[in-house]
């Protein structure tokens, strides 16, 4: 397949003024009748053929202004010659037949356990009807659904309904990727929201019968999101109804279709018995994210798919702000950075690196990445820091005023910031157009004197080569810095240094003593800080830094230094980190959630990333052993205090997922994992037996599996939850995630033979194959068994669901880090994937890029 280039963008030849759709639902033969009111696009003068996208559609009828045409579709669409079109406005009518029942790719109209649903982003609408399936063609839609289902839903407001039919009208012009339809035997969990201008909005969460009592948390999150967007961004909801539907078979997390969000049921359904604190957290964040898209994505959409970060980066930034407001900014920021480093830095450092705004793609589904989403959000965080909160507020108001109802670009976005703040963003734009994680090297100089000394901080940036981009210019990097004196007092409060050149020095004068700098506070830029620091300085910052992110970062860096040393040499764990962490664990003045984050060791993949960056070849087995050894050392340091500390952290009262209680459980369960290293699982087995909520139950089970126990508990868990798909996903994933390195592939092999392993369900597939690739030492076991197993399953899944197969192939993206044997084994698997007959465009593009 040929790549598509941003440079080739042209507006569409025609405008669509209005869309009328009729669906006659049938699992094997659904009829879709489309009436499109169209006109030539004045920005494309002259007469043009009309090219409509369409895939897998059986054309029944085609007419222009009532006159039948004999044009026949090809594999990707339908061309109506200019000569068959009137010079002015016209009505195009098509009737097609599709088979939702056989649609396992879960794009377009498909069926999930008897229920019809759609997924149109990015290019799924073309699997429903012939249409210019591109985001810059926007039109109001009216939809009639006929089908033998109790609930028939589409976008917008309900117009009319009767037995077996319903009509919906969406007055807001939208691109086809935001179209949605759902039909099924569903029950609603309902509520209402009054907007600040007085619109009374009906809210419904639609689920399968029996799941109604697991919707309350999601509904609360929706109402909090609606209120927050009004208060923080001045954005109100704009329809009379907001519907959410939970679906079991779904390729990603959720989808922001106008007025009809469709969610993976995993991100809606929650009760204390079935969902963990992390699940509750994610549900709140994803509900918010999809809701926020109503303005950043739907009212203002993307001109083309290269601009995906325009809506995704901004909406992630907004959902992060929201979660910070709801649950605490310090902990949220640390969690976001852990995720950014684990996913985006990993991507940026390998063969799949691409700019936040890519300039070419083969399959756009392959660009819903951590770079577009998470780095896209970081870029907005930097912009906000550079222009200040007021400047950001003015720019956003201007963005909504100027571009409401439009399909916009990154150039439009940067222009509103320039116009609102007067700042030139030409250099800043490199963050959008250049891939790779910059490294900022730090040099310090101290010049003491009678009247006070001068401290000079020199920062140098290095922008590494990435595929297709060997050389890069310097970026604008906001580096938030504060200085502490040797007593631990902050002598220079946070200020933002702007690094714009390759090397720059910043002077701080009149200091009484050589300060200890706290650099990159709040992780003010997505960069790797290369700062040779002593363990004393790190321990000092862990104790004294007033910036919670850098306080955590200091402990993290201490742990990483030790782990790198342990994995690369025969060094032992020493006592510095363990003593420091024991003090953190016991420090009742610190938020338990923050303490839990401090105690959480860097992941094995993160250690491998760090070792690679330091010029070592990571050995997965040694990393695994070092990490366990360090955890044991911490457990031994806390020793006999652990049971008392664990007991004291149990939150009072009935289960609640609120941040305070969740933080206590997070710390308590982390200490339980340490306790398991000392008692072999006695306490964890008791905790499992007594657990009154899923968070504690899963944590205890994970600890037991880590200790090589837990078989009886797994059986009890299965006996209790065997009928619950979402809970059983946890059961599958946990066993693979916590399998010993040499057993992981065999455990996965055994689980795919389990009668409940439904490989066509993306959640279940991810639970086993995804968990195996996330078990670092298991995936990279020297036998290569896990590499073969994952490749086998990607090859099997690809014909059924190319999007999910392609997404999961990122398991192989880190191959250049490892030794020649592992590199060879992974490349053999990639070659095998590439040689598979009938390989999809999705997986084909990924395997080719992974090969490099
Ligand atoms: N905008 C959506 C991205 C998306 C998607 C969702 C579900 C299935 C397939 C999908 N392809 C793209 C989700 C979001 O970012 O909010
Ligand atoms: Zn999104």
UniProtKB/TrEMBL annotation:
Signal sequence annotation: none
Keywords: Aminopeptidase, Hydrolase, Metal-binding, Metalloprotease, Protease, Zinc
Enzyme class, UniProt record, top EC level: hydrolase
InterPro entries tied to this protein: Aminopeptidase_N-like_N, Aminopeptidase_N-like_N_sf, PepN_Ig-like_sf, Peptidase_M1, Peptidase_M1_dom, Peptidase_M1_pepN, Peptidase_M1_pepN_C, Peptidase_M1_pepN_C_sf
Protein's name according to its UniProt entry: Aminopeptidase N
GO biological process: proteolysis
Domain Peptidase M1 alanyl aminopeptidase Ig-like fold: 436-531
Reactions the enzyme catalyzes: Release of an N-terminal amino acid, Xaa-|-Yaa- from a peptide, amide or arylamide. Xaa is preferably Ala, but may be most amino acids including Pro (slow action). When a terminal hydrophobic residue is followed by a prolyl residue, the two may be released as an intact Xaa-Pro dipeptide
Matching PANTHER family: PUROMYCIN-SENSITIVE AMINOPEPTIDASE (PTHR46322)
EC assignment: 3.4.11.2
Gene it is expressed from: pepN
GO molecular function: alanyl aminopeptidase activity; metallopeptidase activity; zinc ion binding
Domain Aminopeptidase N-like N-terminal: 97-178
All copies of domain Peptidase M1 membrane alanine aminopeptidase, residue ranges: 217-431
């Amino acid at each position: 397949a040929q790549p598509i280039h941003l440079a080739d963008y042209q507006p569409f030849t025609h405008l669509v003024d209005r869309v009328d759709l009729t669906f006659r639902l049938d699992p094997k033969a659904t009829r879709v009748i489309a009436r499109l009111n169209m006109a030539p696009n004045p920005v494309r003068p002259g007469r043009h053929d009309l090219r409509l996208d369409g895939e897998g559609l059986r054309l029944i009828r085609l007419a222009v202004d009532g006159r039948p045409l004999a044009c026949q579709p090809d594999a990707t669409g339908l061309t109506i010659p200019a000569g068959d079109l009137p010079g002015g406005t016209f009505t195009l009518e098509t009737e097609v037949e599709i088979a939702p029942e056989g649609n396992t790719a879960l794009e377009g109209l498909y069926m999930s356990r008897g229920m019809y649903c759609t997924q149109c982003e990015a290019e799924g609408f073309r699997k429903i009807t012939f249409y210019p399936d591109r985001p810059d063609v926007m039109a109001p839609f009216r939809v009639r659904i006929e089908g033998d289902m109790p609930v028939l839903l589409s976008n917008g407001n309900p117009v009319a309904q009767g037995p077996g039919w319903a009509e919906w009208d969406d007055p807001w012009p939208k691109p086809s990727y935001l179209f949605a339809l759902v039909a099924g035997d569903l029950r609603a969990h309902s509520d209402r929201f009054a907007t600040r201008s007085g619109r009374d909005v009906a809210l419904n969460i639609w689920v399968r019968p029996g799941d109604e009592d697991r919707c309350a948390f999601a509904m609360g999150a929706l109402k909090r999101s609606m209120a927050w967007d009004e208060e923080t961004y001045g954005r109100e909801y704009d329809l009379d109804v907001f519907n959410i539907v939970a679906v079991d078979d779904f390729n990603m997390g959720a989808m922001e279709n106008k007025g009809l969000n469709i969610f993976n049921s995993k991100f809606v359904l929650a009760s204390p018995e079935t969902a963990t604190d992390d699940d509750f957290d994610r549900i709140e964040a994803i509900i918010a994210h999809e809701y926020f898209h109503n303005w950043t994505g739907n009212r203002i959409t993307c001109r083309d798919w290269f601009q995906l970060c325009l809506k995704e980066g901004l909406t992630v930034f907004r959902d992060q702000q929201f979660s910070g407001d709801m649950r605490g900014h310090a902990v949220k920021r640390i969690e976001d950075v852990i995720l950014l480093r684990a996913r985006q830095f990993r991507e940026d450092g390998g063969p799949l690196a691409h700019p936040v705004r890519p300039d070419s793609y083969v399959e756009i589904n392959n660009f819903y990445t951590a770079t577009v989403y998470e780095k896209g959000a970081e870029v907005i965080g930097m912009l906000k820091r550079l222009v200040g909160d007021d400047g950001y507020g003015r720019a956003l108001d201007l963005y909504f005023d100027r571009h409401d109802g439009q399909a916009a670009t990154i150039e439009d976005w940067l222009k509103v910031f320039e116009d609102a703040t007067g700042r030139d963003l030409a250099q800043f734009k490199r963050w959008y157009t250049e891939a790779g994680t910059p490294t900022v090297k730090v040099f310090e100089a101290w010049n003491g004197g009678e009247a006070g000394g001068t401290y000079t901080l020199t920062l140098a940036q290095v922008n590494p080569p990435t595929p297709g981009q060997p050389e890069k210019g310097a970026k604008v990097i906001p580096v938030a810095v504060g200085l502490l004196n040797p007593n631990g007092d902050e002598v220079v409060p946070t200020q933002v240094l702007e690094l714009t050149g390759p090397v720059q020095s910043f002077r701080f004068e009149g200091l009484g003593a050589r300060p200890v700098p706290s650099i990159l506070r709040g992780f003010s830029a997505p960069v790797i800080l290369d700062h040779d620091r002593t363990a004393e300085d790190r321990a000092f910052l862990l104790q004294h830094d007033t910036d919670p992110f850098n306080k955590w970062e200091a402990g993290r860096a201490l742990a990483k230094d030790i782990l790198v040393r342990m994995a690369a040499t025969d060094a032992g764990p020493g006592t510095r980190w363990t003593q420091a962490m024991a003090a953190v664990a016991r420090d009742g003045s610190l938020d338990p959630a923050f303490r839990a984050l401090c105690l959480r060791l860097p992941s094995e993949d993160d250690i491998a990333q760090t070792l690679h960056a330091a010029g070592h070849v990571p050995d997965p087995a040694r990393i695994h052993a070092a990490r366990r050894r360090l955890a044991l050392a911490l457990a031994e340091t806390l020793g006999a205090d652990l049971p008392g500390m664990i007991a004291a952290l149990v939150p009072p009262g009935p289960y609640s997922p609120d941040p305070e209680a969740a933080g206590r459980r997070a710390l308590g369960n982390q200490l339980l994992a340490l306790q398991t290293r000392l008692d072999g699982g006695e306490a964890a087995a008791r905790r499992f037996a007594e657990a009154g909520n899923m968070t504690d139950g899963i944590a205890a089970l994970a600890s037991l599996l880590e200790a090589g126990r837990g078989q009886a508990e797994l059986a009890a868990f299965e006996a209790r939850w065997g009928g619950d798909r979402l809970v059983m996903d946890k059961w599958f994933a946990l066993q693979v995630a916590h399998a010993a390195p040499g057993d992981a592939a065999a455990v996965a092999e055994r689980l795919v033979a389990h009668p409940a392993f439904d490989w066509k369900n993306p959640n279940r597939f991810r639970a086993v194959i995804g968990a195996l690739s996330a078990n670092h030492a298991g995936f990279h076991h020297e036998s290569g068994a896990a590499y073969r197993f994952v490749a086998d399953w990607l090859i099997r899944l690809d014909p059924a669901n190319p999007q999910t197969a392609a997404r999961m192939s990122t398991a192989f993206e880190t191959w250049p880090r490892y030794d020649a044997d592992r590199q060879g084994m992974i490349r053999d698997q990639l070659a095998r994937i590439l040689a598979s007959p009938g390989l999809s465009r999705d997986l084909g593009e990924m395997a080719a890029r992974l090969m490099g």
